Amino acid sequence: MALNLDGRVVRDRFKGELIERVKKLGGQPVLAVIQVGSLAASSLFVSQKVKFGEAIGGKVNLINLSAQVTFAELQNQILKLNQDSSVRGIIVQLPLPPHLDVFDVIETIDPKKDVDGLTAINLKKLWTNLPAGRQVRGDAIIPATACGVLSILDFYKIPIEGKRAVVVGRSNLVGGPIALTLLGRGATITICHRKTLNLAEVTKGAEILVSAAGHPGLITKNHVSPGQTVIDVGLTPGLDGALFGDVAHAEVAKIVGAITPVPGGVGPMTVCSLFLNLL
Fold first, then answer.
1. In the Cβ-directed half-sphere of 202, how many Cα atoms lie within 13 Å?
2. Which end of the chain is more exposed for a tag (fewer CB within 10 A), N or C?
3. Is 49 a catalytic residue?
4. Is 116 a catalytic residue?
């Protein structure tokens, strides 16, 4: 059976460090979280951020807006937070209602307060700097999910440099940044997507396989090889509120060398990484 890459264990390792860093600040670091609408999954993810922020001595200001909010209204709210010196970081909980363009919304956030690392300026810095580490080089901010993936690999002492890494999913918000961070750590990268032919042949050749497609059950026993490290970034809510990863965990775990669970894998370290970036 594969080694279980438990993100909760890694999160708790960083928790003590963050508590000490907050104490040294002499005041509560404030993270503003904007939630548009009331999707159950979004509310769950937001509650995890609030709980962890409070646990390390920080403060999370949750701003709930109607699902019918206009872009101008949302933009105005973000601009106010940009100007608020008491707010150290800002995130907009995704997904957004279809009438709002996610990239226009993200671009409204001051890059210095963009703890999710998703503004164009921070993504450009990620590309041009290719930071060698879980945190930053210069003033680039590694996107929280990518930072979480690196932290898990580092904690469990899984080598990255010189390894063949396949990332399934090419989104600008998740798959792309993960690929860039692995590239920055010296891995040889292949990015797959919905038009990739013979996906199983490509994924079997990876030493590190990351799936960030948001497609439950996409990666099966036919897509993996013995000894691989599999990182499941997929987190899709079901009708009953349960969360599903991209990987058919039960069958894949019997073959590969190491694997993250869902839930309890990348998710906890994504939350933790928001606060690493905040500080």
1. 18
2. N
3. yes
4. yes
pLDDT digits (tens, 9 = 90+) for 134-164: 444 456 688 999 999 999 999 999 999 999 9
The catalytically annotated residue of 6, 116, 232, 246 is: 116
Run of H or E including 65:
strand 59-65
> From the candidates 6, 35, 77, 93, which is the catalytic residue?
93
How would residue 125 be classed by pLDDT, with cut points 50, 70 and 90? confident
Rounded to the nearest angstrom, the gap between the alpha carbon of residue 37 and the centroid of all alpha carbons in its chain is: 21
Helix ranges restricted to H, the chain: 7-25, 40-55, 71-83, 102-107, 120-129, 144-155, 175-184, 199-204, 249-252, 266-278
How many Cα atoms sit within 13 Å of 227 on the Cβ side? 6
Place of tokens 């439950």: 216
| Token duo for residue 95 | 């997904």
What is the tens place of the pLDDT at every residue in 10-28? 999 999 999 999 999 988 9
pLDDT digits (tens, 9 = 90+) for 94-121: 999 999 999 999 999 999 999 999 999 9
| Catalytic residue from among 6, 49, 77, 113 | 49
Report how far apart the first and last C-alpha atoms of the chain are (Å, whole number): 37
